Amino acid sequence: MSFSSSVKDELSRQMPGARHCQIAETAAILSLCGRVKISASDHFWIEIHTENVAVARKYFTLLKKTFNIRTDVSIRSGINPGRSRTYIVAVREHEEALKVLQAVKLINSQGEIGENLSLIRNVVLQNACCRRAFIRGAFLAAGSISAPEKFYHFEIVCPTEPKAEQLKNIIATFDIEAKIVPRKKYYVVYIKEGSQIVDILNVMEAPVSLMELENIRIVKEMRGSVNRQVNCETANINKTVSAAVKQIEDIRFIQSVAGLSGLPESLQEMARIRLERPEATLKELGEALEPPVGKSGVNHRLRKLSLVAEELRQQFPDRNTSSLQ
């Protein structure tokens, strides 16, 4: 089972305790994957079409618990090989369909259906608990979440831009910043920040999936931290090695052109120790001197040797390190 399917399975078993929250979740599912049909005799019926059995189960349970009405459940197999089957949950009785549509505000007092009514009229979304339920229903109906081992991506696909804008604003009431991008004829509300996806799972009340995602995030962050540390240490080692190679080249150049005996004793000793211990760090070089000196003292002496080598190169431009190999 994919991580997205696992989250939906967990959410499908999360049943709101209050009726107003049940209505809010029903409204989201109807708004994003529902179909309202009207017969020639002006009779309403409702269908939701989904390829996810968890969504079908949740909608069936919501209708039963919230409205105590009968539903028909059917399965339509995919026409082409490999295509998923579609689950259809339908309310075919006019009075029962009317009861649901009025409760979720998909139909007004004149019996007229508005495409965005459930989102524009926020009667069912006044409470924070109802907004949680609505986001949960929206994700069940039209959402997906990537496998967190690969990358972080949470999205809910909306059929119209007003629905996407309203959903984005509802999510924002929980201090979560979602964005919208057009995709073909749809509008996708998405979140890419890992910590905010954790927050949205918390909002939807999916604690098991939340902990799984958090554990994966911790492991990924630890790996990233270790990699950064290794890269930093590697860079420092490369820098140290390059500096040591340059120091040895300078000392050998001085030795070849003018000899080391003309240098002050402190620089002679420094040059000798560096040649004897090409792999040593500044600290190790300082400890090998008599008397020992700190890293800054070693660095100061090596810079002086470098200046001497540079002056000699200017005086003897025909001499170079290649002739000293």
UniProtKB/TrEMBL annotation:
Keywords assigned: Cell cycle, Cell division, DNA-binding
A GO BP annotation: cell division
Matches recorded under SUPFAM superfamilies: Homing endonucleases (SSF55608)
Domain of life: Bacteria
Residue span(s) of domain Sporulation transcription regulator WhiA N-terminal: 19-106
Pfam family, one: LAGLIDADG_WhiA
Occurrences of domain Sporulation regulator WhiA C-terminal (ranges): 226-307
InterPro entries for this protein: Homing_endonucl (IPR027434), Sporu_reg_WhiA_N_dom (IPR018478), Sporulation_regulator_WhiA (IPR003802), Sporulation_regulator_WhiA_C (IPR023054), WhiA_LAGLIDADG_dom (IPR039518)
MF terms (GO), sorted A to Z: DNA binding
The WhiA LAGLIDADG-like domain, residue ranges: 132-223
Function: Involved in cell division and chromosome segregation.
Family listed: Belongs to the WhiA family.
Protein name in UniProt: Probable cell division protein WhiA
